[in-house]
Structures are given as structure tokens and as C-alpha cells.
């Protein structure tokens, strides 16, 4: 194994601390026969445990060794994988080196562990190659990554030669990209002593636009702007504003489920992180994806100045915002920044003779969102339609008049008519029906 790993060139930066790197070192020690057997076994078990932990996090199954090697290929960001992500299969000398590396990986895929297992009296590798994972709820592992790793792993295992292996890997890079950005739909920002990083959000909401009852014109505006963005045409930053509980956030979250396979990714950012926006944009501006930077429930009080960071990023900075980035925000306020009568009064505004400029600065933020979509509370008839549609989806077998009568009681006690209120009511009703059936 150590001789195979030493031949890696483009993928040779796995690091000595990687599982594959550690195992290669142990195999080299084993051939030297100077290291005590129990030390070698302990070293192997340490790496097998790491592999099992990784398999648990990503829901690997059947052949964990091949799953792990596939995961390495899918996440290793090197000059070849990053360029292939952008332009697809390359036609150049670099292919020679890539195919050589893939020949190594194909040999590792089918590596015979029986000799070392017999010599050390272990069977851990055989067990890893025929593994049956315990069922886990999808919220406990990264299902999206798991499905892609296992699907590609099976194809690579069946590849008859390095040429086919090469085509399968490059096709994956072109379709899904490379690294955690390629594998995951959504991310949050994490700031630390070593800078700003993106942390995958493993369990995203499964909502689709069709799940949001009503608001057809609003969804169509959002869909049209997003599809133009994905097609490389001109598109605008979008502000979804209006009443609480009307589906603004759900509409934006649905986009990554609708368009993930077309290269859409989402980065969620909070108000206190706006100063990190420039760093985040620098990280993703050259990647072959379209990123929506999502700001939920956006608003500012009069003494908050974070909106200045946002304005600089949206428009007006020295560096032009990359074409692969848009900002989508939701807010209960159309103007985003709280405006007081003090802003309009000459004498009460610290003698600011240019008070209209001060006012304009505050109001200009919402104007920088080229698409502004209003989500207002439904009327009574629309609320009834939402309730009955959700009840049908839930499979509730109650008469319509009973459902609507209970819905009216519920909304009077829970904040009025809205899509959120309707969903909360249906959740409650479904729970009581389950208790009754039991």
C-alpha cells in the first residue's frame, strides 16, 4: 500500500494525518518487521476507528474502504479537480498525471488485505469491506453526501480500467463540483482566529416551492430571477418582505432543493457577520457554482450601522460583486431600517441641514434589491384553502366543516391568519388524530 500511495502526484497532498497516509506508514513499518506486532495492530485499529467515525458521520455502507477512497476523490481540492469542476473533462498533458493517480486509486479500491490480516491475526479490513450499517435517521448523518459517495463508489468499483475510472470522476466534478462546497447545499459562516470559513448545513429543510400554498405570482417572480441567475443572464438581488408567517423564508430555502443539481448553493449569514461578507465572497467567487447569500429576517434599528457593510457589498464597493453571487433577504419591513420622525425634522436632527441625505442613506438599502416581492397575509378564503390543502396532504380524514371550524378557533388564539398559523394548526390536529387512533 505504501508504494501505491507514494506514486500519487496530483492527489499526493492528502497529508500524513489522513487515514490513507497513516495506513501507508503502518504498512511500510510492517514490511520492515522491526516494529512489534501489537504496535502495528494498535496503529491499524486507530485508523479503522477513524474510518468508522467518518462512516457514521456520512452514512457509509457495504464497502467502507471504497466509500472512504471515493470520499477522498470527491473532496480533494487540487489544480486538476478545481479546473475540471469549471470546464469539465480536460484535454491536455495533465490528463496523463490524473490517469496515473486514478490507476493508483483503482488499485487501492481492490487492494488485497489478506496477507497483512493473516500475519497480524486481524480481520478488520475484511469486515470493513463487507459492512452492514445500523439504520440511522437522516437527521443524524449527512444524507446528501452519503448518497453521492455510495453511488459513485459503486460505479468506480465496477470500472474496468483507469480510463473509465477517469471519466467517472471527471463527470462527477463537472456535475457536482469538488470539496464540501460541491457536496453540500447550504452553509453557515464561522469566524475564528484563523479567518472565516464555511460550515456545511447537513440537514436542510426539504421544502419545495409547490409546498407553499398560494403566492403563485410571488413564487414565479422568485423562480424567474433565480433561473436567469443560474443561466448566466442578468439577475437581481431579491428582497422578500411582508407579514410574518407568509412563507418568505420557506420560498428562499426551497430554491436550493429545486436548483441544487443546477449548481445553486446557499450561504446563510446573520447581521452580526456582515463585516465578514467580503471574505466570504472572496472564498467562492471563482468556484463553478451560483451562490445565494441568504439573510433571514433582515432589519436594522436606527442606532445599528451594520447595514453600511451590506450596502458596500451589494453595490458601491471598489471591487465589483462577482457574477456568481446574489443576495436574497427576507424582512417584515419594506424599508429595512427603522425610520423615526427625528430623521425628518431639521431642528431635532443635530442641526443636520442635509437631513434629506441622511434619510436617503437609510432608505437606499432596500432600493439596492432589484427584485422586491411582497408577501401579505391571506384573506379568509385564502386561509381556508391553505388549511384544507395542508389537511389533505397530511391525510386527515375529518369533514371539511370540522377542520375549518377548528382552524378558526386556532387562529383566534394563535396570532391570526397566515400560512404559518395554518401549518401549526394542521400539525396540532394531526397529533390529536394520532392520539385518538392509538
Short description:
With 438 residues, the chain is of the alpha/beta class.
Q: What's the number of extended β-strand segments?
A: 7
Distance from first to last alpha carbon: 57 Å
User: What are the segments in which pLDDT stays under 50 over at least 5 consecutive residues?
Assistant: none
Helix proportion:
40-55%
- The sequence of SSEs as H and E is HHHHHHHHHHHEEHEHEHEHEHEHHH
Radius of gyration over all CA atoms, rounded: 27 Å
Beta-strand portion reads: 5-15%
**Dominant shape:** globular
Mean pLDDT, to the nearest integer, reads 84
Instruction: Report the biggest beta sheet as strand number plus sense, adding barrel if it closes.
Output: 7 strands, mixed
**Strand line-up across the major sheet:** 2-1-4-5-6-3-7
Number of discrete helical segments: 19
Structural class: alpha/beta
Describe the structure.
The protein is of the alpha/beta class and 438 residues long. Helix content is 53%, strand content 9%. It has helices spanning 2-6, 19-32, 37-58, 64-75, 79-87, 94-109, 114-120, 124-129, 143-157, 162-176, 179-183, 216-230, 248-259, 277-284, 307-314, 355-367, 380-394, 400-413, 419-437, and strands at 186-192, 195-200, 238-242, 264-268, 290-295, 325-331, 371-375. A seven-stranded mixed sheet has the order 2-1-4-5-6-3-7, with helices on both faces. The mean pLDDT is 84.
Amino acid at each position: 500500500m505504501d508504494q501505491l500511495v507514494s506514486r500519487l502526484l496530483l492527489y499526493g497532498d492528502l497529508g500524513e494525518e489522513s487515514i490513507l497516509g497513516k495506513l501507508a506508514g503502518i504498512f511500510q513499518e510492517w514490511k520492515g518487521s522491526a516494529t512489534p506486532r501489537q504496535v502495528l495492530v494498535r496503529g491499524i485499529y486507530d485508523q479503522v476507528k477513524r474510518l468508522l467515525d467518518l462512516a457514521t458521520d456520512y452514512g457509509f455502507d457495504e464497502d467502507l474502504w471504497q466509500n472512504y477512497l471515493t470520499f477522498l476523490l470527491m473532496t480533494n481540492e487540487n489544480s486538476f479537480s478545481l479546473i475540471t469542476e469549471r470546464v469539465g473533462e480536460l484535454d491536455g498533458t495533465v490528463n496523463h498525471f490524473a490517469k496515473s493517480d486514478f490507476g493508483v486509486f483503482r488499485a487501492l479500491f481492490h487492494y488485497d488485505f489478506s496477507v497483512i490480516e493473516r500475519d497480524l491475526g486481524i480481520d478488520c479490513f475484511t469486515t470493513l469491506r463487507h459492512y452492514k450499517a445500523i439504520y440511522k435517521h437522516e437527521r443524524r448523518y449527512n444524507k446528501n453526501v452519503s448518497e453521492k459517495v455510495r453511488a459513485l463508489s459503486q460505479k468506480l468499483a465496477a470500472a474496468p480500467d483507469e480510463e473509465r475510472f477517469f471519466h467517472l470522476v471527471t463527470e462527477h466534478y463537472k456535475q457536482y463540483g469538488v470539496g464540501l462546497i460541491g457536496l453540500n447545499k447550504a452553509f453557515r459562516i464561522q469566524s475564528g482566529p484563523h479567518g472565516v470559513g464555511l460550515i456545511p448545513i447537513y440537514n436542510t429543510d426539504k421544502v419545495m416551492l409547490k409546498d407553499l400554498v398560494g403566492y403563485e405570482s410571488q413564487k414565479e417572480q422568485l423562480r424567474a430571477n433565480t433561473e436567469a441567475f443560474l443561466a448566466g443572464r442578468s439577475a437581481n438581488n431579491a428582497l422578500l418582505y411582508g407579514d410574518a408567517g407568509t412563507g418568505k423564508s420557506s420560498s428562499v430555502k426551497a430554491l436550493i432543493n429545486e436548483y441544487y443539481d443546477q449548481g445553486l448553493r446557499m450561504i446563510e449569514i446573520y447581521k452580526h457577520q456582515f463585516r465578514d461578507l467580503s471574505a466570504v465572497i472572496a472564498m467562492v467567487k471563482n468556484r463553478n457554482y451560483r451562490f445565494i447569500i441568504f439573510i433571514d429576517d433582515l432589519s436594522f434599528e436606527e442606532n445599528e450601522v451594520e447595514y453600511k457593510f451590506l450596502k458596500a457589498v451589494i453595490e458601491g464597493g471598489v471591487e465589483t460583486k462577482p457574477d456568481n453571487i446574489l443576495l436574497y433577504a427576507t424582512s417584515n419591513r419594506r424599508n429595512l431600517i427603522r425610520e423615526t420622525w427625528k430623521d425628518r425634522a431639521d431642528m431635532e436632527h443635530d442641526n443636520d441641514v442635509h437631513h434629506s441625505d441622511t434619510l436617503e442613506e437609510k432608505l437606499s438599502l432596500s432600493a439596492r434589491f432589484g427584485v422586491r416581492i411582497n408577501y401579505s397575509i391571506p384573506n379568509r378564503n385564502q386561509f381556508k384553502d391553505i388549511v384544507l390543502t395542508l389537511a389533505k396532504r397530511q391525510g386527515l380524514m375529518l369533514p371539511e366543516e370540522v377542520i375549518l371550524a377548528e382552524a378558526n378557533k386556532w387562529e383566534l388564539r394563535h396570532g391570526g391568519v397566515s400560512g404559518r398559523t395554518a401549518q401549526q394548526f394542521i400539525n396540532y390536529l394531526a397529533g390529536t388524530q394520532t392520539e385518538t387512533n392509538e
